[in-house]
Amino acid sequence: MDIRQLFRLNQAQTTHFPLMLQMDRAEKCSIYDNSGKSYLDLISGISVSHLGHGNENVKNAIIDQVNKHMHLMVYGEYIQAPQLKLSTKLASLLPPTLNCSYLVNSGAEATDGALKLAKRITGRSKIIANKNAYHGSTHAALSLNSDEYYKNAFRPLLPDVHFIHFNNLEDLDQIDSNTACVVTEVIQGEAGYIAAQHEFLVELRKRCTETGTLLIFDEIQSGMGKTGKLFAFEHYGVVPDILLLGKALGAGMPIGAFISSTENMHQLADAPILGHITTFGGHPVIAAAALAGIEELERLDILNQVAEKEQLFRKRLIHPAIQAISGKGLMLGLQLDSFENTLKVLQMAMQKGVLSDWFLFASNKIRIAPPLIITEDEIEFACKTLLECLNEVYGN
Ligand code: PMP
């Protein structure tokens, strides 16, 4: 059997049309397949590789920690320096009410942990999420997915989940004194990179405070500098009660975190104790990588360049087929007319050495989410290639 057949046979599949590129290695913004062909990575493994691939300081932090120790104990018992340093670093970068991190294994687990925390703190069960939001694929996180197609086969899911429209002020009336929490992205990811309007977040915060509802920001995709600030909520001056991080937080390693105040988080240690348990959450090697990743963001001073890079994409990506460019920073969605044409452009771009993707709930949009270290020359190449593909597909 060849490699492609083995992949189909022995690895669980998530679609009937996997990309099936046989990747070999990756460096900075390029991924190389096993024929040596290079691809410019415009998606960063879905918003993970914000420092590019193979950052030396992250790799060294991983190696140093492997040499000290790997897993020692389930989360929360031993004092392990990498976990403590990462949690302390996050606290130093966040507002004082977000000073206590629970480190977990994935974004979905962070979502799940935050929902449990909100229920535990408020004693309420009603949960509100946005239409077209994506918070993960486990049972609890999937319950927050408004799309019946994706969840119907897996019912029953969490009860008492209600959906509002993102950026719709009138819908905020649905938040009441029975609501445990509202979960929202700040820049909606899978909806096709749609930024929250300032007034929406301000009014949402107000309504949550009035009703004693906890406000949860999912920055699993928008966090770690993608919008030019370390956390997208910093653009708005609105602080959540619980913050979710993941993806790029691990600098290429698997991680999630839900973050709140010490007082809130300590409720998971009480009635019941062990309110959330994870074996591998806060894994020392991953925590060391995550800390090194944050230090690299600071050392390289990349966040200051994000707005300029966004502008270059916006300046170059002008084409009759591009109906709009949504998003903020290096989270941009190019809106075309149909899924069919989006797919054609993506396939053609892949052949020409540029990797991009569409969005779960916006299949007529092309995703521009490269590593933040992308250079001006690479942006020029990406845009030139995409414009060529648009010309070929739309016949201009
Ligand atoms: N929240 C958001 C906003 C996401 O984009 C994702 C993943 N795409 C998740 C949660 C789930 O993260 P994970 O795949 O690590 O479970």
General description of the model:
The strands form four sheets. This protein has a seven-stranded mixed beta sheet with strand order 4-12-11-10-7-5-6, sandwiched between helices. It has 13 helices and 16 strands. The longest helix has 19 residues, at 376-394. It is of the alpha/beta class and 396 residues long. It folds into two domains: 3-54 and 302-394, Alpha-Beta Complex (Aspartate Aminotransferase, domain 1); 56-300, Aspartate Aminotransferase, domain 2. It starts with a helix and ends with a helix. The mean pLDDT is 97. Strand 8 (187-188) and strand 9 (194-195) form a beta hairpin. Helix 3 packs antiparallel against helix 10 (284-300), helix 4 runs parallel beside helix 10 and helix 12 packs across helix 13. The relative contact order is 0.16. Helices cover 36% and strands 17% of the residues. It binds 4'-deoxy-4'-aminopyridoxal-5'-phosphate.
